[in-house]
Amino acid sequence: MGARSGTRERMLVAAVELMRERGAGSVTVDAVLARSQTPRGSVYHHFPGGRAELVREALIRAGDTIGVIIEDAAGRGALGALRFFGEFWTAMLRASDFTAGCPVVSVAVGGGPDDDELGPVVAAIFDRWHAGLVATLTAEDIPRERAEPLATLAVAAMEGAVVLCRVHRSTAPLDAILAELEETFTARLARPLVGGHHPGGWSRNL
């Protein structure tokens, strides 16, 4: 049983790595077998649905990994969670020598025709990340109508920064985005409550 679960895990890790490095379209059965060093029979034993099931499971695994990181960082407060998420991406980029990005984004923008059905899965993953950040912000008395766009800004900005970091082979874009996000978060967190509401138009656009 342990060997079987170990084989399945190796295949999922290999699929996620391929997504991060080359995009979702690169996740073929042959590529996964080569990277995971597993026999061909393992594919349909562990993933009866073939490539489609393998890619789906790998995507969910990747989304859960980052989702747990965001949720676990909530106890650090909004700024602490932001910094922790930034540190996570910085470490991932450097460890891969800037060859690997976000596997979820790779499916969102680089999947093949066979991956169209993964759209709802990608949306659910991003929604989970967004909800985790919203919960962290609202826990610090930021109204939901402001927390939601702030969380959207954070996810979108950091995902874009990861792409730029790969292009420039430097964490400078991510460092710059984190500094701007910290300034924005700090400004919102610093606003005192007046009559139960933050002054200054929380409902305004960013």
UniProtKB/TrEMBL annotation:
InterPro entries in UniProt: Homeodomain-like_sf, HTH_TetR, Tet_transcr_reg_TetR-rel_C_sf, YxaF_TetR_C
Keyword DNA-binding annotated: yes
GO molecular function, one term: DNA binding
DNA-binding region: 28-47
Record key words, sorted: DNA-binding, Transcription, Transcription regulation
Superkingdom of this protein's organism: Bacteria
Domain HTH tetR-type: 5-65
One Pfam family hit: TetR_C_13_2
Gene source species: Nocardia mangyaensis
Full protein name: TetR family transcriptional regulator
